[in-house]
Amino acid sequence: MEQLSNILGRMGGVNLLPVALAAVAFVLIGAPSSWVTLTVAGLAMGMMVFLMASGLSLVFGLMDVLNFGHSAFVSFGAFVAATVLAGLSGWLGAESIALEALALALAFLAAILFGLVAGWFFETVIIRPVYRDHLRQILITMGAMIVAEQTILAFWGGTPYAVPRPHFLEGAWIIGDVSIEIYRGFAFALGLLVFIAMVLVLNRTRIGLLVRAGVEDREMVEALGFRVDRLFIGVFMAGSALAALGGAMWAGYETLITPALGGELMIVVFIVVIIGGLGSVEGTLLGAILVGLMSNYLGFLAPKLALASNMVLMVAILLWRPNGLRPAVK
Amino acid sequence: MTLLSLTAMQTKIGQYAVLHDVGFDVPEGGVFVLLGRNGAGKTTTLRSIMGLWSPSPGSVHFDGQDITRMHTADIARMGIAYVPENMGIFGTLTVDENLVLATARGRIDPARLKRIHALFPALERFRDKQAWSLSGGQKQMLSVARAIIEPRRLILIDEPTKGLAPAIVDAMAEAFREIAQDATILLVEQNFNFARTLGRDMAVIDDGRVVHRGSMADFAADAALQDRLLGLAM
């Protein structure tokens, strides 16, 4: 058993789980074209959820802060980006790929900037007074989430808000009898780029080194002469900006959004953070991909089970690895 | 000259008073040993000096400056290093990354690194290994090495020999002697035989109070006092 475990470990260990899941799904689904479509959909969903979850994971790992208000950044990111895209609808209808791409970039940039500023405000006004007090953190961040949802309702109304999408992201690539939605491919590529950037920052820069060390032992980092509270503001702002970007991408994916969007996604985001292991970016990606694939495969194979699939996945993984698949602390 | 001075320090953890009256002076240079039974308040004293817990009332002065209410990071930047009882190494970081992190500018002085590798050769062999994979003794070496990767004036070391093999304890004693040539060490230790070979001055703490101060030579010569304060009679 130990030998088998060592061999699997050398081959990639828990990183192989999505591959194993995809292989099992391939056998059960039978039709290769459906399997490819579902796999791409699962990967795209996983990447968008990864963007929303990665910041939350680092924030919890670094400062032991439970932020239920994280969904507010997702919702606001979606609505800010949608509003910018609606305002630039003339560019989207101009049939110029450059103008459309610029409109999309500006929408994402607006969501990111909003996330940065809102993250700074949220950390300073709401989180800081309740450091080291989990009960108050839960209460106050839940309260903030409700306030944020109601604010969106007041500004954008309760009816579903249509999100215009650039034409170059509409439609699908048809390869043989396989159909791949272009937006899903785009979401996967953008998510992958952000993941690579995060890994590079965490592993190749001094700030990344401090964040990784802080996730393990905040007190010791301070005893080495670094103000973790100041570092935390930066991580919180970056995490909020990533959540807003994730929300913006999700808005483009759904094309019809409501103020409840963030709250609805939050359950999946928390499951991903727990499955991946708190404070671990690689773990968060692994958890997000697993959740994305599982949702799509089960949605096809057993739609009635799809609703419970993420919960079942989380319970199974926690029974096997109580600290998650790739916890940041060893 | 006094480098560190603690005055009537009282520290509470939550609602429980752990330190009731801790006061002693640590002279500059050499090794000052703080002895005491389990639960006497030794670790709390070091953590209070580092600002990890706040003494109230009472004061901590370092090099004449009041550091009682300063942030831990600011205290560390004044030249005080801390080697905690649990070693406090970062397991997912490599040995070298642990050392780099302890430098102010992210660069290790090659001469100091050479000296550290001479003191602890294992750290050179395993410099690219993640720290969680090191043995207990190697982790302790890394923790001490991190404290001396840059010049420090005072190094607080909490029970460094706990659970270590005798050969590693000897190596550690040798390292502390060398480190004490250009830094002051405040050593918390329960292993009296280890402490007596290193300490010049000492204090004994019991139930959150300093119950004895003096020279290590005098204390080591007084078996009755050792028995009364530390229960060392065999």
From TrEMBL, chain A:
A Pfam family: BPD_transp_2
Annotated InterPro entries: ABC_transp_permease, BCAA_transport_permease
CDD domains per record: TM_PBP1_LivH_like
Chief subcellular location: membrane
GO cellular component: plasma membrane
Membrane spanning stretches: 12-29, 35-60, 72-92, 104-126, 138-162, 182-202, 231-253, 265-291, 298-320
Membrane disposition: Multi-pass membrane protein
BP GO terms, sorted: amino acid transport
UniProt keywords, alphabetically: Amino-acid transport, Cell membrane, Membrane, Transmembrane, Transmembrane helix, Transport
Single GO MF annotation: transmembrane transporter activity
Highest taxon, organism lineage: Bacteria
Location of the protein in the cell: Cell membrane
Keyword Ribosomal protein among UniProt keywords: no
Family designation: Belongs to the binding-protein-dependent transport system permease family. LivHM subfamily.
Protein name (Swiss-Prot/TrEMBL): Branched-chain amino acid ABC transporter permease
Upper lineage: Bacteria, Pseudomonadati, Pseudomonadota, Alphaproteobacteria, Rhodobacterales
UniProtKB/TrEMBL annotation, chain B:
Keywords: Amino-acid transport, ATP-binding, Nucleotide-binding, Transport
Gene3D superfamilies: P-loop containing nucleotide triphosphate hydrolases (3.40.50.300)
SUPFAM superfamilies in the cross-refs: P-loop containing nucleoside triphosphate hydrolases
Annotated GO MF terms: ATP binding; ATP hydrolysis activity; branched-chain amino acid transmembrane transporter activity
InterPro entries: AAA+_ATPase (IPR003593), ABC_transporter-like_ATP-bd (IPR003439), ABC_transporter-like_CS (IPR017871), BCAA_Transport_ATP-bd_LivF (IPR052156), P-loop_NTPase (IPR027417)
Record-linked PANTHER family: ABC TRANSPORTER ATP-BINDING PROTEIN, HIGH-AFFINITY BRANCHED-CHAIN AMINO ACID TRANSPORT ATP-BINDING PROTEIN LIVF
Family: Belongs to the ABC transporter superfamily.
Protein name as annotated: ATP-binding cassette domain-containing protein
Organism: Pseudooceanicola pacificus
Lineage, highest ranks first: Bacteria, Pseudomonadati, Pseudomonadota, Alphaproteobacteria, Rhodobacterales
